[in-house]
Design goal:
The protein has 325 residues and is mainly α. It has helices spanning 2-29, 33-37, 44-53, 60-72, 86-121, 126-140, 143-157, 182-215, 218-225, 230-259, 262-267, 273-283, 286-314, 317-324; strands spanning 170-172, 175-177.
């Protein structure tokens, strides 16, 4: 187990270093930051002075080492669009995105896994067919269309929920959250449901397929032959083996909720990382783009490492394999 964790940490460090290198290349080949930070009236001497202040006159390896050192401290320079620290911009926007992704993830897992198990155990019933039809619709419809339909239904026809913004928030040690206010929950409901519907549909179909495959396995027949109850067979033996491949997909999908919530945030004007990323792309704000790339890489690395640890909790057979390695 210890050697496995060390190996995973080394692999994660290599991935993050590679992503940092790609992010650093953005600074080198996507425009000249000095030209974007100063006006046309700036003299050549002023440009050279700014270039020296930013460290752009140094050798490539030195610049990259400095970039990595600053990144480890969460420092990515100034936004070319807003003239503010990128770290400060992320500190303002990240809580909103994490809040949205967290609620969408809980909805996806809390609804998708039980519904997938139920559909597998009740296959052939009209309810199972209806659930599978709804999941096919959820996978097929684009996220922006789902968001627009929900806004029309619950903000226009039935004016129950707000259609944009984050609502009232409170600050706890500098971390803003809307989870502690009723208005925050009202604003969060529609975008979180919109973001989670595709994930719910995907998890339902995946859990159903894996559950049916496991139920046809020899060890399930042996468990039934031992006289074990259906509850123990389904929810102890079958479900545990079903979750091993499902956890991998869920982990990747949860990472994508943070990385690709751009569409949902745009539809609902949610003040999170997605909107900041869109603005950075339109303005070619390289420091923000580089920081966003490193942040998303870190998110996926952490999620994948967590998924690997969950494997050991779900399937004890993997512990022996880890020791043998």
């Amino acid at each position: 187990m210890r050697s496995f964790l060390i190996r995973r940490l080394m692999e994660s460090a290599m991935v993050l270093l590679t992503v940092a290198f790609l992010a650093f290349l953005l600074f080198q080949f996507v425009g000249d930051p000095v030209a974007q930070m100063v006006g046309q009236e700036a003299s050549a001497a002023q440009r050279e002075q700014l270039r020296a202040d930013l460290g752009l006159d140094r050798a490539f390896p030195i610049q990259f080492a400095r970039f990595v050192g600053n990144a480890l401290q969460g420092e990515f320079g100034l936004s070319l669009r807003q003239g503010r620290s990128v770290a400060a911009l992320f500190a303002e926007r990240l809580p909103a995105t994490l809040e949205l992704a967290l609620i969408a993830s809980l909805l996806a897992i809390g609804v998708g896994i039980p519904l997938g198990v139920w559909v597998a155990l009740r296959r052939g019933s009209w309810g199972a067919h209806a659930a599978m039809g709804a999941s096919l619709l959820g996978v097929s419809l684009p996220t922006f269309l789902i968001g627009i339909l929900l806004i029309y239904a619950f903000s226009v026809v039935l004016p129950w929920l707000p259609s944009f913004g984050r609502g009232e928030t409170v600050s706890i040690h500098g971390w803003s959250t809307g989870l502690l206010t009723l208005d925050g929950w009202r604003h969060l409901l529609l975008p979180s449901v919109t973001l989670s519907l595709f994930q719910i549909a995907l998890i339902v179909r995946l859990v159903r397929a894996e559950m049916l495959e496991v139920l046809r396995s020899d060890f399930i027949r042996f468990a039934r032959a031992r006289g074990l109850s259906n509850r123990i067979v389904y929810f102890t033996h079958a479900l545990r083996n079903t979750l091993v491949p499902v956890v991998t997909v869920i982990g990747l999908q949860l990472g994508s909720l943070i990385a690709f919530s751009i569409v949902t945030e745009t539809v609902f004007q949610w003040p999170g990382m997605g909107q900041l990323f869109i603005q950075a792309v339109n303005f070619a704000d390289v420091p923000v783009l580089a920081a966003y790339l490193c942040l998303i890489a870190l998110v996926f690395v952490l999620i994948n490492t967590t998924v690997d640890l969950i494997y050991f909790a779900i399937d004890p057979r993997l512990k022996g394999g880890a020791h043998r390695r």
